[in-house]
């Protein structure tokens, strides 16, 4: 199947749900990232005070926020005059299954901070 027709309101609801989940996970990841940065900075300060070797470079993946991609898709649908929208295979993966081109990179940068949060 190359494409599928879906109801605009149903698709909008799904995109809004995916956006909400994405943003919530980003906010959690951002909080976890900040905690880790503070922890590593505190350790570096303590090492400096104790006369130990000081590490000033931290290689922490920075959480990524892709909310604007959802906002763009939602805005496009809100402006669409059709009530039935034709989606390609790729559109279905992104909008319905929440599997975007950036999903793997996003998972790498954010998931490390989502464990036990």
State the main characteristics:
single chain; 2 strands; mainly alpha; elongated; about 120 residues; two-stranded antiparallel ribbon; about 10% strand
What does this structure look like?
This protein has 117 residues and is mainly α. The chain has one domain (3-111). The chain contains four helices and two strands. It has helices at residues 8-49, 67-79, 89-96, 103-111, and strands at 3-7, 84-88. It has a two-stranded antiparallel sheet with strand order 1-2. Helix 1 (8-49) packs antiparallel against helix 2 (67-79).
Poorly predicted regions are none
- Which strands sit side by side, in order, in the main sheet? 1-2
- How far do the termini sit from each other? 39 Å
SS strand fraction: 5-15%
Total helix count?
4
Please state the overall shape, judged from the principal axes of the Cα atoms: elongated
> How many domain modules?
1
Describe the biggest sheet?
A: 2 strands, antiparallel
Order of helices and strands: EHHEHH
Q: Could you estimate the helical fraction of the residues in percent? A: 55-70%
**Can you give the mean pLDDT?**
94
Radius of gyration: 20 Å
SSE layout:
Blueprint: E1 3-7, H1 8-49, H2 67-79, E2 84-88, H3 89-96, H4 103-111
Antiparallel strand pairs: 1-2
Short description:
With 117 residues, the chain is mainly alpha-helical. The protein contains 4 helices and 2 strands.
């Amino acid at each position: 199947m190359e494409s599928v027709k879906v109801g605009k309101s149903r698709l909008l609801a799904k995109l809004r749900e995916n956006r909400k989940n994405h943003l919530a996970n980003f906010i959690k990841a951002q909080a976890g990232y900040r905690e880790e940065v503070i922890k590593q900075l505190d350790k570096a300060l303590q090492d400096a005070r104790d006369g130990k070797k000081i590490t000033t470079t931290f290689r922490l993946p920075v959480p990524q926020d892709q909310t604007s991609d959802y906002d763009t898709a939602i805005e496009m649908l809100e402006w669409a005059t059709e009530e039935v929208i034709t989606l390609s295979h790729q559109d279905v993966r992104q909008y319905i299954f929440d599997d975007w081109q950036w999903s793997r990179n996003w998972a790498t940068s954010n998931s490390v901070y989502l464990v036990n949060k």
